[in-house]
Write a structure and sequence with these properties.
single chain; 111 residues; alpha/beta; 3-stranded antiparallel sheet; 4 helices; 6 strands; 41% helix
Amino acid sequence: PPPLTPAQKRTRRILFGLITVCNVLLAAVLAVASACYDKPVPPHTAAIGEVGLTGDVRPVGQMNARLKECLRLGYTSVLVPEGVRGDLPGLRLVPIRNVLEASSLVAYPAE
């Protein structure tokens, strides 16, 4: 095969890093899904959580503070691990169990 371009090498390092670390951020997984499906993440959508090696999505520390910051920054929808509760007017929490559910929101956005 032909040699890899610098951009291909960078992408390969990023993907390899995502696969080999213990936990990655849900937002990073959405970015990769967005690139793979060639579709943007829905507008005004944020993602908070970490992804384990099995693809499960787990809560991170300071969840309430992070949700408040999302609202302050103008996000209206936040993907969060299932079971996370929040009561912030103007912020819709979308519970996610695993990477498949999260990436399907990019691949098949609601119309």
